[in-house]
């Protein structure tokens, strides 16, 4: 196994009754890259993300992270190993402010037995990094607002900040731009571009412009199988992909 | 080991006589355990269906059991016919259940469990007080139905009351009937579909509200009939519903919420463990401990028995013995 | 900090509490002091339950169990002190400085064991299983023949001493309860403000997200379950002293339901809500019959629960935010 391989998925399978949502999937993500995962609705992208983050157990196959088998590691364990994810359906703490949301995530990274009884509000150890992250995702002015009161796009940004708060070495992003307006999308694209080289990212996204401008490599998923992996150019010119996926897309739009 | 324990306490009888007596006592207690299990099943089946399908927790389910028992006692005493009382109990429980659903439970389907707990807790206070107003605080005692008051010998030398035996058989028949209804009929199919996909069933042109009211009433009938069965065997009094309700919770937790099969297995397990524990644990402990301590420990342990079983099962299978998978 | 109308009500209640024995005496109703102490004790229990229900989102329907353990520890120690016998090789005691900490310790231990089991489940299962285990504790106390079984246990030595204080004085006891409640409220305020408390709130709002943030939610929940159990144990210890009597009745499952009601009635997830809830609930319970009596409604006086039950139902159906929310006027922003 080469040194720059961060994540390797090997023959992964997940069945829902008769449906194989993940069907003998192989995938390699290299350290530092933005790896995009695309495919039509129901291809099994979210299902794969859940298996990577530990929320769902695969039926067969292996997941290796830095060469170690984490196929059966629990979700909290994976989070501590450095795998963080954001959700296709926004998942935040609605009754907390933006700052409280991110500070909670920061605090989870720092979990130390003693610090847990420190007063959380005004605690610079967690609030300073949190404020930096809030700025980094472009929510600077909003840190005092309740998360539930944010616009949808802002909630997605918040979610990114929470995932980054774990200082992950692998970031799993499930459609971070879903439901965003063009302006919000542009901010998010900039944010992700800024992460290139710092945080390895596995990105599921339907916005093809964003995918092709951001990704170092792209894997195409159809019916739970990876039908192609390669650079954006290779994918664009791959006949199988054009037929199975991009063709449809072009017709549809 | 059990027989040995008993022998310590009754040293004067002949060995063979002792052993067969113990054997008979054992059979009798097993039957008693089965009978408690049947009551518990009838109450739990309604609970578990209502949990599983409508997602509501109804603390007042035990009240339906109590209403059944009181109605049966009153009608059968007035008319002289147990069976008339039995019918009336089913009707009264159905009516009470349907009213409960239409007036209250309906508003709770979309609320969280906490609200459901508190509202149905208030309902218990109300029903208990209403029953007190109607029937007073003194417990009622019912006679056994004339036709079933004898006993039969299941094994030679072991007479067992016909009525109790009948209850066991009726309960088991009920279990089979329920299983058939749910897994083989159109109504059962609708019920199962409704639990996973409310919108789809509505789209098929089925009136979901009516279906739910009916289902609730059906669960109520099961509880009410259990109350009618229990009437001649226990004292009919306010609060009888809650003790059976909590046991039914244990049954449902053991069996897995939403699973009728689980309710049956759980109910019989709880019935047997509780009855046998109370009957034999003390003598069993007497093997190792002085009599006074054995009595004390035995009483404490036998009242804990079912909860210990529940804890053990929970450790092994947090979702119960027959966890209900989505869509089934 | 509460504001506006709420602040005024809170302040009025605090002042009333501080001077209550004086006022009651002056008004010729000294007999009200023990009832007031009882309200403070239940307020304490409700506040501890609120740590679970309001702050962590754990609906426990078995909180009376810990109230009972605390009460029985005090009762049993007093029993052995009077009898001159030993328990686990140690003598009994009527010294509150020993028995009350032991009551807290024991209820925490029971909460640790039962919580470790209950917290393997969630949702409806959790509600049912906390109720079931509380019922188990109830039956255990019933089976304690030596300590009165069904009939309960009289503390012939009367209430405990508490160092230099004599808890058999109604005034002293009232102020001890008040001080304990106040201290516990301060403790809770501190606790929910810590990183630990913030994590609990996050678990209530979105447990799945907390797990993927790397949180071992089971441990957090167990920790707060034990703390809440200890708080209820403290309330139980006071309850035993108030009546000089403990019985399985303290652990009856309806008690757990009532505590839950107090929390929600007052306003869950707020510091003072459960206190308001306990006051309102117990006053209603006590004065509803009196009210019907005054109105000449004999039947309702006897059967006041026929009104009480529906009243509670209506409150639950229509007032989602509790008294505290009602007084505060607008939701938190
Ligand atoms: N919990 C589940 N139970 C049963 N089937 C499921 C479950 N989760 C997903 N599926 C099915 O598995 C398939 C893959 O779903 P998945 O959500 O992974 O697709 P996706 O690629 O993320 O789609 P989208 O682009 O719409 O987000 C779908 O057919 C879906 O219906
Ligand atoms: Mg998806």
TrEMBL record, chain A:
<keyword id="KW-0813">Transport</keyword>
<dbReference type="Pfam" id="PF12399">
    <property type="entry name" value="BCA_ABC_TP_C"/>
</dbReference>
<dbReference type="InterPro" id="IPR027417">
    <property type="entry name" value="P-loop_NTPase"/>
</dbReference>
<dbReference type="Pfam" id="PF00005">
    <property type="entry name" value="ABC_tran"/>
</dbReference>
<dbReference type="GO" id="GO:0016887">
    <property type="term" value="F:ATP hydrolysis activity"/>
</dbReference>
<dbReference type="GO" id="GO:0005886">
    <property type="term" value="C:plasma membrane"/>
</dbReference>
<feature type="domain" description="ABC transporter">
    <location>
        <begin position="7"/>
        <end position="248"/>
    </location>
</feature>
<dbReference type="InterPro" id="IPR051120">
    <property type="entry name" value="ABC_AA/LPS_Transport"/>
</dbReference>
<protein>
    <submittedName>
        <fullName>Branched-chain amino acid ABC transporter,ATP-binding component</fullName>
    </submittedName>
</protein>
<keyword id="KW-0547">Nucleotide-binding</keyword>
<dbReference type="InterPro" id="IPR003439">
    <property type="entry name" value="ABC_transporter-like_ATP-bd"/>
</dbReference>
<dbReference type="InterPro" id="IPR003593">
    <property type="entry name" value="AAA+_ATPase"/>
</dbReference>
<keyword id="KW-0067">ATP-binding</keyword>
<dbReference type="InterPro" id="IPR032823">
    <property type="entry name" value="BCA_ABC_TP_C"/>
</dbReference>
<dbReference type="GO" id="GO:0005524">
    <property type="term" value="F:ATP binding"/>
</dbReference>
Automatic annotation (TrEMBL), chain B:
<dbReference type="Pfam" id="PF02653">
    <property type="entry name" value="BPD_transp_2"/>
</dbReference>
<feature type="transmembrane region" description="Helical">
    <location>
        <begin position="36"/>
        <end position="60"/>
    </location>
</feature>
<protein>
    <submittedName>
        <fullName>Inner-membrane translocator</fullName>
    </submittedName>
</protein>
<dbReference type="GO" id="GO:0006865">
    <property type="term" value="P:amino acid transport"/>
</dbReference>
<feature type="transmembrane region" description="Helical">
    <location>
        <begin position="117"/>
        <end position="136"/>
    </location>
</feature>
<keyword id="KW-0813">Transport</keyword>
<comment type="similarity">
    <text>Belongs to the binding-protein-dependent transport system permease family. LivHM subfamily.</text>
</comment>
<dbReference type="InterPro" id="IPR052157">
    <property type="entry name" value="BCAA_transport_permease"/>
</dbReference>
<feature type="transmembrane region" description="Helical">
    <location>
        <begin position="211"/>
        <end position="232"/>
    </location>
</feature>
<feature type="transmembrane region" description="Helical">
    <location>
        <begin position="294"/>
        <end position="316"/>
    </location>
</feature>
<feature type="transmembrane region" description="Helical">
    <location>
        <begin position="80"/>
        <end position="105"/>
    </location>
</feature>
<keyword id="KW-0812">Transmembrane</keyword>
<keyword id="KW-0472">Membrane</keyword>
<feature type="transmembrane region" description="Helical">
    <location>
        <begin position="244"/>
        <end position="273"/>
    </location>
</feature>
<dbReference type="GO" id="GO:0022857">
    <property type="term" value="F:transmembrane transporter activity"/>
</dbReference>
Automatic annotation (TrEMBL), chain C:
<dbReference type="GO" id="GO:0015658">
    <property type="term" value="F:branched-chain amino acid transmembrane transporter activity"/>
</dbReference>
<dbReference type="Pfam" id="PF02653">
    <property type="entry name" value="BPD_transp_2"/>
</dbReference>
<dbReference type="InterPro" id="IPR043428">
    <property type="entry name" value="LivM-like"/>
</dbReference>
<keyword id="KW-0812">Transmembrane</keyword>
<feature type="transmembrane region" description="Helical">
    <location>
        <begin position="259"/>
        <end position="284"/>
    </location>
</feature>
<feature type="transmembrane region" description="Helical">
    <location>
        <begin position="65"/>
        <end position="90"/>
    </location>
</feature>
<feature type="transmembrane region" description="Helical">
    <location>
        <begin position="172"/>
        <end position="192"/>
    </location>
</feature>
<keyword id="KW-1003">Cell membrane</keyword>
<keyword id="KW-0472">Membrane</keyword>
<protein>
    <submittedName>
        <fullName>ABC superfamily ATP binding cassette transporter, permease protein</fullName>
    </submittedName>
</protein>
<keyword id="KW-1133">Transmembrane helix</keyword>
<feature type="transmembrane region" description="Helical">
    <location>
        <begin position="218"/>
        <end position="239"/>
    </location>
</feature>
<dbReference type="InterPro" id="IPR001851">
    <property type="entry name" value="ABC_transp_permease"/>
</dbReference>
<feature type="transmembrane region" description="Helical">
    <location>
        <begin position="124"/>
        <end position="144"/>
    </location>
</feature>
<dbReference type="GO" id="GO:0005886">
    <property type="term" value="C:plasma membrane"/>
</dbReference>
